[in-house]
Give the backbone structure.
Amino acid sequence: MKSDVVVKRVLWFLIGLGAALLAASALGAEGEPEKAAAASAEKWLARLDAGAYGETWKEGSTLFRKALTQAQWESAARAAREPLGKLLSRKLAKAEFRRSLPGAPDGEYVVVLYESSFEKKQSAVETVTPMKDDDGVWRVSGYYIQ
């Protein structure tokens, strides 16, 4: 009789442990797109910070490259970034996975927000939106700074 109670307690413990591990695994997996997308965004931003606007267009997602020509992007990026001066700091504020965004086809996106500071704009918010491209690689599909 006493061994039945011990067996039941051990089984309940194992069931609880299994549920906890499953939940932790699901949370870890849920964070993976955000981590991969943020890494992609940071690599892309480094090129943008260096003024390599053509490279950022080439490294953008298929959707990004179809939306505007390289010359259009270079002009827009130059107009948005050069008046701000040099980047002083950038801190990841938030990364949020989404399956749909206004004006974009359904897919896998991560909206990444950075709190940034530039020589001529002390406080800015940069929004970088990587998407999982057709080949499974996270590439930037949008950039906005305010």
Residues 33-145 form a domain with the Nuclear Transport Factor 2; Chain: A, fold (CATH 3.10.450.100). The chain has one domain: 33-145. Residues 3-30 have pLDDT under 50 and may be disordered. The chain is about 50% helix and 30% strand.
